[in-house]
Amino acid sequence: MAYRILSWFLRVVIRVFFRQVEIVGLEHIPRTGPVLFAGNHPNSLIDPMLIITTCGRKIHFAAKDTLFKGRIMRAVLRGLGAVPLARKVEADGGASAGPAREASEMGRVNDAAFEHMFAVLGTGGAIGIFPEGISHDESQLTRLKTGAARLTLGGATKTGAPITIVPCGLTFIHPKRFRSRVLIQYGPPIVIAPGDPRDVKAVTGAIEAALRRLTINAPDWETVRALDVVRRLYQPHEISIEDRVELGRRFNAYYGAVAADPRVIELMARVRAYQQKLDELGLTDRELARDLSKLEISARLLRHLILVAFWLPLTAPGAPLHLPTVAFARLAGPRLTPRKDVVATTKLLIGMLLVLLSYGAAVAVLWWRAAFTWALIAAIVLPVSGWATLRVLDRLRLVRRALGVLLRQLRFRREVRALRAEREALADQVIQIVTAVKPVELPALFPPGDPRRDAPEESWRARKNADLDAELDKDATEERSEEAERS
């Protein structure tokens, strides 16, 4: 019962914190039988929350033992069936303790944890573990620990039943932002049967390979950013998060093999220069690619403002509680933790606790000073008002973006058009080079029917470039005429 209540509550929290949660691969999760979920770990406590609320199984996560020290956190973790695990540097004093005592204490904690997890697997339950061992903000998977492999091999031997490993790929579009988007991918399972000939190293390697197929990995964040621009230039419009992540994963996975190609070197230099121009104008590639007219942008702006006006009255009852909470969480999140991978978790926890405390205080005061009926009305109205506040904040973000694009189009008309022409030409070059260097065995990335799949040399894009050039020439003619009139 405690697990059901907590998992339901976490679903609400996740739905509030993220604007969109896309789930792929649920068909790979066995409905019954022992399962080990193995995921990458880029976003601290949010990672297990996402798997708990989407996998459809009751899952016991292995968590570092230091999280169990706080009374509230310990109660929550135990309610979720979490199992404490000790890392080497944290076992009873860490590096300051004697090596023998440290190893003994860590072994005692982890032996008990493994026995508990073997028991869960023995009853057909599910275990969750992050083989990287610790949350991080690196641009690729870190070296995997062997715990997941030892757990599955030992579990298969002890229970006499096959253990299914389900790899979990978590990809955050903006890892530290409130109301961002996330993709959760469950990959094809790895089955470890009793007497499996593979050793710990081989199973760990299989898990790593499976996770790399579900995650984006690159040597550094600068490369990730440049390849993300390449991905945007290459992809069709309006693709799903899953396809977007798959394109990004492929570009990062195969980039190392072609990075020394002179064509690729020239392309990446041109892409970085294009991104720098975008930064100077305060534009994003997404905004530039849409190629919306001023009238279209104004219409969108008006629609967003109408929706803001619709939701705004519903925000009034809870505004004194919600707005300070959102502002404090946004400002305090990055300042309360030195680690970038914990910023989102800090924002989520601060916001959740402040909202719960403020709701509880408001209901209690109304019950005490007014009547139970008013307290009940507040308990219903405040969450509705909170949801309206989220809708208003989402729309205001879109209003701000549309207004910024409109103002930049008015102020930097010629620069924007020139940069759009540069984008179109650059996209042609990206498609040509990717087609030339793509491994033969790699499937085509365009969906059937996309006009760029088999584009002829005189393509639709080239024709569009000609139209843009004509517009630029027209602007230049108008400017020369204006200068002549002034002189």
Please explain how this structure is put together.
There is one protein chain. The protein has 487 residues and is α/β, with parallel strands linked by helices. The chain has three domains: 2-93 and 104-212, Glycerol-3-phosphate (1)-acyltransferase (3-Layer(aba) Sandwich), CATH 3.40.1130.10; 221-291 and 413-437 and 457-480, no CATH class; 294-411, no CATH class. It contains 16 helices and eight strands. Strands 1, 2, 3, 4, 5, 6, 7 and 8 form an eight-stranded mixed sheet that branches. Helix 3 (71-79) links the parallel strand 3 and strand 4 (83-85). Mean pLDDT is 84; it is low at 89-97 and 452-468.
Topology:
Blueprint: H1 2-17, E1 18-24, E2 35-39, H2 46-54, E3 59-64, H3 71-79, E4 83-85, H4 99-122, E5 126-129, H5 147-159, E6 163-172, E7 180-186, E8 190-192, H6 200-212, H7 221-234, H8 241-258, H9 262-281, H10 285-290, H11 294-315, H12 319-335, H13 343-369, H14 372-411, H15 413-437, H16 460-486
Helix pairs in contact: 1-2, 4-5, 5-6, 7-8, 7-9, 9-15, 11-14, 12-13, 13-14, 15-16
Compute the average pLDDT.
84
Main β-sheet, in a few words?
8 strands, mixed
Q: Under CATH, the topology of the largest domain is which?
A: Glycerol-3-phosphate (1)-acyltransferase
User: Tell me, what's the shape?
Assistant: flat
Oligomer classification: single chain
Task: Please outline what is shown here.
The chain has 487 residues and is an alpha/beta fold.
Give structural attributes.
alpha/beta; 3 domains; Glycerol-3-phosphate (1)-acyltransferase; 487 residues
